[in-house]
# Entry
Amino acid sequence: MSEQRTPFPARLEAGSAPDAVSWISEHGARIRESVTTHGAVLVRGLPIGDRAAAVAAVRAVIGEGMAEREGFAPRDAYGPGVYSSSHWPADQPMCMHHELSYAATAPRLLAFACVTPPASGGLTALADARAVLRDLPTDLVERFERHGWRLTRSYNPLVGTAWQDAFGTKDRAEVERYCEAGGLEVLWRGDDELITTQTRAAVVAHPDSGERCWFNQIAFLNEWTMEPEVREFLTQEFGPEGLPFNTFLGDGTPLDRATVDLINEVYEKHTVREPWQRGDVLVVDNVRTAHSREPYRGEREIVVGLGEPFRP
# Structure
């Protein structure tokens, strides 16, 4: 095994490993050391030929998986904490974000395993949340640290994710119990529409190092990040309050396009990219490192694992 030292992330070469799970188990300490040091590590050269092998490799990394709740896009479930990548239009980007940073409980560790790399594009890009925080304007950071950030979501059967899928139940009372425990405000409309509101910290201390990290989905889930024609259509059809998701300053103040664009520009400044290859396993510290998914062409299959839940 050799390690290619790059500023971020690190890369480990599996060489001629006969079995992905055995290799990951044998080198687990080195993988975690690299994640701790660099915020993410790409393991290249593992023999992952199909989905089952990818699922097994992801499980070997994350251990006991964390069930996703409040997902903003559908996924296929492959076992505890192991899923397909989000079903998101191939021609639309998924902007930089930290997985489930809007939830009361989020994963500390993410693992991605590549079964089929796309013909072009489709990178899972990364950005250092400490550097992003450092380079955001001081007054912007102070506002979000003072007030937090607010997320509103509208679950309806016509657009976005159905609440039954997002919360893993068809029982309204169970959804209400979950939301009460997690600090979400709940409003039911009609027979099948649910609106939730939650306010979270925009900056959190890393659970191990204590370093301050920009940890949220303020820009990704904001209306100004949507394609203009999509935003216009959804607003006309469902009204501003009926958008599948939108973000605000924690006191409810709307965000303007300039603020959202600025956050995304700072992310871009710190973005690193590496094209997927079959058999790649990418392990990410979800607190210290944001990730995105870029548009792509061709078939793309990435298996994702959520591990080590914590309360930000």
Observations:
- The first strand starts at residue 2 and ends at 4.
- DSSP finds nine helices and 20 strands in the chain.
- The first helix runs from residue 20 to 26.
- Confidence is low (pLDDT under 50) at residues 1-6.
